[in-house]
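The protein record filed below.
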Amino acid sequence: MKRAVIAAFAAAVVVPSASAAAPRLVIAKSSPLVVSGSHFKAGESVTVSFGQSTRRVRTTRLGRFQVSFVGVALDRCSGWRIGAVGARGDRALLVQSRVMCAPASTS
């Protein structure tokens, strides 16, 4: 009986931390740039940065958000970095290294 209680308590403690995913960013749309975040803390204020542009947004009760950078488009040949920092410590980073692109066609 005592072992069953200890096992049930250990399972209750382990499951929530194992199922918690790290904060994540994805590009929902590239022109204009729309960034979606997930797995942040519910109701958290998040600062999202792309280059010199910064936006502040509050997450939903599910820890999600979506923010747009109007007038900004991604260039697949250039490197870029999108970062999100939550007021309660959540962080996520999305990086695209510079890609070697062929020169523009002259024909």
Remarks:
- The helical segments are 2-19.
- The CA atoms of residues 32 and 70 lie 5 Å apart.
- The chain is about 15% helix and 40% strand.
- The longest helix spans residues 2-19.
